[in-house]
Each structure stands twice: as C-alpha cells, then as structure tokens.
C-alpha cells in the first residue's frame, strides 16, 4: 500500500501550524499543547512546564512560585 489514508492529530505536547504536514513539532519548555494543537501556549502564572513536549502545565507547590515570561 502506498500513500496515506488518514490525517492524525498531533499528540499532546506537539503542534503543527501548517497544512499538508508530515510531522508535528515539539513544544519548547515553558509551553504546552493539547492534542490536535496548531500552536503551543505559554503556561499561566503559578504553573510550569520545565521540560519540552508538555501536554499540560504543572501547578507550583506551596512555598514556590513561577515567574510569567521568565526565560
């Protein structure tokens, strides 16, 4: 069998902004994407995604804080 028969959503933590794509891109640290995303989203203040490829942001624990737009 040649060719492709279906288009599949990008997995959580990955995105694809274009059409006719063959693969999905991984979100950078500090950003996340849900399945089927066309872009990555910055974690809200008080939440973090310390590693690339996050499907969601984690909550900061008591005694800790995140800084919005920190690089």
How would you describe this protein?
By secondary structure, the chain is mainly β. The chain has strands at 14-15, 25-26, 31-32, 41-42, 47-48, 58-59. It is built from no helices and 6 strands. The strands form 3 sheets. A two-stranded antiparallel sheet has the order 1-2. A hairpin with an 8-residue loop joins strand 3 (31-32) and strand 4 (41-42). The mean pLDDT is 88.
Q: How are the secondary structure elements laid out?
A:
Elements lengths: L13 E2 L9 E2 L4 E2 L8 E2 L4 E2 L9 E2 L12
Antiparallel strand pairs: 1-2, 3-4, 5-6
Helix-residue proportion: under 10%
**Poorly predicted spans:** none
Query: What is the H/E string?
Result: EEEEEE
For the termini, the CA-CA separation is 47 Å
Shape: elongated
Q: What is the average per-residue confidence, as pLDDT, rounded to a whole number? A: 88
How many beta-strand elements? 6
Can you list the strand order of the major beta sheet? Answer: 1-2
Helical segment count: 0
**Share of β-strand residues:** 15-25%
Major sheet characteristics: 2 strands, antiparallel
Radius of gyration: 15 Å
What structural category do the secondary elements indicate? mainly beta
């Amino acid at each position: 069998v040649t060719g492709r028969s279906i288009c599949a959503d990008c997995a959580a933590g990955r995105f694809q902004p274009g059409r006719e794509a063959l693969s999905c891109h991984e979100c950078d640290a500090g950003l996340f994407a849900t399945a089927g995303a066309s872009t990555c989203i910055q974690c809200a203040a008080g939440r973090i995604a310390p590693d690339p490829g996050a499907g969601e942001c984690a909550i900061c624990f008591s005694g800790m804080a995140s800084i919005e737009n920190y690089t």
